[in-house]
Specification:
The complex is a heterodimer. By secondary structure, chain A is mainly α. Chain A has a single domain, classed as Globin-like (Orthogonal Bundle), CATH 1.10.490. Chain A contains nine helices and no strands. By secondary structure, chain B is mainly α. In chain B, helix 16 links the parallel strand 3 and strand 4. Chain B is globular and about 75 Å long. The chains are: A mainly alpha, B mainly alpha. Chains A and B meet through helix 2, helix 3, helix 4, helix 5 and helix 6 of A and helix 1, helix 5, helix 12, helix 20 and helix 21 of B.
Chain lengths: 185, 537
């Protein structure tokens, strides 16, 4: 029993959940790590240098931003922006790795179970149905945002291929165009 | 290492548990975007390589020759006899794991078989099984495997997911050069007619026309002229670079990408402006029209074959020494293999000496060939160039150390001398991602085909991550490099990982800043983009 749990639900739910912010981030990070083989997941979790472990760095930043936004009733615009940027960074990685779209995006659904378990732990059971429904809806929006970013990354990838082919012969193409123009005015 | 927790089926998808002990038994997966296109039968035949045949990595049957096991065994044995280093590398690894997390492909893909120790183990296990008594007697217990078609497929999958960047070798306490293990594995695959088209086609083009794109001499000269026309419009100076002329002091050889692709062409314009500024007595060559060497990514024989034109042409033209453009693997070749593969240098060549400063480049006493970054740095250290770095004031520049110049020849400070002189705004990326610890672009060693763009982006993540960091925190908008493959491959890398950052060769930026006698007032940079009105961005 924490001190906050003896307060009425409508006033205590969010502050109590906020106390579990770090725990929620940690749990989600663990879930996300399950997309990778055990040895890789252990490395991603353990190496703290952001430049020696870019996937871990991006995942940690996303986990922190997710937990921050989902443990407050009305996130600040700066927190929403941080989440959008962190999701963008993470989905850029997930969109090029050997993951199916379901795997790349699916780990965000795990937030629902993590949040419900956290809510239950702070006494937010049936009486917090409104808050939980709100959280579910927000997780849904996050999943959609992640999927949008995933799709845009895949589009970018194909655009990069096309652009590279064009650029590879850019000067030669210009040369031959000009040569043809001179030969056939 | 802790085992992976049980996946939650509702959220995690179908990834299978992959216990460490059985990793070598997990067959490779050839999903779209993860493998190089196979070399075409005609290309393999044109190079006189064994067993040219059509095949597809995604098909079950790769149509190997009937006696493929005997061929591989003999080829492996031959390399073990020829290269003492290979036998040492096969025997000596203590599996300490120092290299495991240093590979950009492991960091980007998360696939443990991309850990250098495990990638090498794909070959090492066969070495144990086929060539050591302990391996033959103890089998799996000694980490040994005997040849199988699955292993051949595995080699093609993973040795074409190594860019031979040697970052892992930097951290190996024994100094095992994993790049050379990859080189040998690729050689073994070639014995079965299995190669990557993106590598062998440029080699075949080189054999025919002297450069990777297969450009004929007339077009080469026309392209140089076209760049001179651009330079004239930008600076008002008319250049007439000598080509194929005997009696000059220097033979200049650039990677051909600098003549045909963007943004390499701006770097080539920078070279020409530099030579004009100091009145260098040089010639270009349509015979030695390529400094790059994709043969190095296929086999020692092909590397030597592609590289032979450099000394042949230097000798024919009677130059005193050779100057090479901004290229990466050209310098691994020149610095570490050229002497033994193509040497000794023709008799008339001398130890390179800067005609302006008098500096003698004694480290190149044997090869007679130096990199343009060291040449320019020497000029700058002697204050032999007049520069207006404010012309680059719209750029906040960082530098990507290309793997080969950085790790193979220690060219760390010279390009920075050039950049700091040419630009007022220069920022370093985090220290564990630069200099000898630099991260690969993810597209080296012939892995720059567009069919593997997703794989390249994974391999490029560590570099992209560091670039994104300085973009966010320092406003970096330009990534400079001294490698032609980088100039091409860092473009998509930057567009994907740090959108808004452009890519430039160091000599493009130097060319922007160079003040030449007799030039008109410049209103644009070499890309014809307006010069900044003045002041920091």
């Amino acid at each position: 029993m924490t001190a906050r749990q003896i307060l009425p639900v409508e006033t205590s739910f969010w502050p109590a959940l906020a106390l579990r912010e770090e725990d929620i981030a940690r749990q989600w990070l663990e879930k996300m790590g399950q997309s990778y083989p055990a040895q890789t997941a252990a490395f991603i979790a353990a190496q703290e240098d952001p430049f020696a472990n870019p996937v871990g760095d991006r995942a940690r930043r996303a986990a922190r931003a997710l937990a921050r936004v989902l443990t407050t009733p009305r996130p600040l615009p700066a927190e929403e922006e941080e989440l959008a940027a962190a999701l963008d960074d993470l989905m850029r990685v997930r969109a090029v790795q050997a993951l199916t779209p379901e795997e790349a995006v699916g780990s965000f659904f795990a937030l629902k179970a993590i949040l419900r378990a956290s809510a239950a732990a702070v006494g937010g059971g049936e009486e917090a149905a409104g808050e939980l429904a709100d959280l579910d809806a927000r997780v849904d929006r996050i999943v959609l945002a992640a999927f949008g970013k995933y799709s845009r990354c895949r589009e970018t990838l194909f655009a990069l291929r096309a652009e590279e082919i064009r650029r590879r012969h850019a000067r030669l193409s210009r040369f031959f165009r000009e040569a043809e123009g001179e030969d056939d005015p | 290492m802790s085992p992976r927790p049980a996946p939650d089926a509702s959220t995690q998808g179908p990834r299978a548990e992959q216990p460490r002990a059985r990793r070598l038994e997990t067959p490779p997966v050839f999903s779209p975007g993860s493998f190089c296109h196979p070399a075409r039968q005609e290309t393999v035949a044109a190079l006189g390589l064994p067993h040219p045949h059509p095949w597809q990595p995604t098909e079950e049957d790769w149509h190997l020759p009937e006696n493929w096991e005997a061929i591989l065994r003999a080829a492996f044995q031959d390399r073990l006899r020829k290269y003492r280093s290979l036998r040492v590398f096969m025997d000596i690894c203590a599996r300490c794991g120092a290299c495991a997390d240093k590979c950009h492909f492991f960091l980007g893909t998360g696939d443990p078989k991309n850990m250098p120790v495990l990638r090498a183990e794909l070959l090492r296990s066969v070495y144990r099984g086929e060539f050591t008594l302990a391996g033959r007697l103890l089998g799996k217990a000694a980490g040994a495997r005997t040849l199988s078609k699955t292993i051949v497929k595995e080699w093609f999958a993973y040795f074409y997911r190594c860019t031979e960047c040697r970052r892992c070798a930097l951290f190996c306490p024994y100094g095992i050069d994993t790049a050379e293990i990859t080189m040998i594995a690729r050689e073994l695959l070639l014995e079965l007619g299995l190669g990557a088209n993106w590598i062998l086609e440029p080699v075949a083009n080189c054999a025919r026309s002297g450069n990777h794109l297969g450009i004929r001499p007339q077009v080469f000269q026309e392209m140089v002229q076209a760049l001179c026309d651009d330079i004239r419009e930008i600076t008002g100076i008319r250049l007439t670079p000598p080509c194929n002329e005997k009696g000059h002091e220097v033979l200049f050889i650039a990677p051909s990408g600098d003549l045909y692709t963007e943004p390499g062409v701006y770097t080539f314009m920078g070279y020409l402006l530099l030579f004009q500024a100091i009145g260098l007595d040089y010639t270009l060559s349509t015979y030695a029209s390529e400094g790059g060497n994709f043969g190095l990514f296929a086999s020692a024989e092909l590397a030597a074959k592609v590289n032979a034109k450099i000394y042949a042409e230097a000798g024919r033209l009677g130059v005193k020494w050779i100057l090479g453009g901004e290229c990466g693997h050209m310098w691994r070749m020149a610095h570490q293999y050229m002497d033994s593969m193509n040497g000794p240098a023709p008799a008339g060549l001398e130890v390179p000496r800067n005609p302006v400063t008098g500096t003698v480049f004694r480290h190149a006493a044997s090869t007679k060939m130096i990199h343009i970054a060291e040449f320019s740095a020497d000029l700058l250290l002697h204050r032999a160039l007049v520069l207006d770095p404010a012309r680059n004031d719209h750029l906040i520049v960082t530098f990507h150390d290309s793997c080969n110049p950085a790790r193979a020849m220690g060219l760390l400070e010279e390009p920075r001398i050039v950049l700091r002189a040419a630009c007022n705004h220069f920022v370093e990326m985090p220290e564990n991602t630069i200099r000898e610890r630099t991260f690969c672009c993810g597209s080296g060693a012939g892995l720059n085909g567009d069919e593997i763009m997703a794989l390249r982006m994974q391999g490029g993540l560590p570099r992209g991550h560091a670039l994104r960091h300085v973009q966010r925190h320092n406003g970096v908008n330009t990534l400079a490099c001294i490698c032609a493959i980088d100039r091409n491959s860092l473009r998509p890398l930057a567009d994907y990982w740090a959108p808004g950052v452009s890519v430039a060769g160091a000599h493009e930026l130097l060319g922007n800043a160079l003040v030449l006698p007799g030039e008109g007032e410049r209103t644009t940079d070499l890309r014809r983009e307006p010069l900044p009105p003045g002041g920091a961005p």
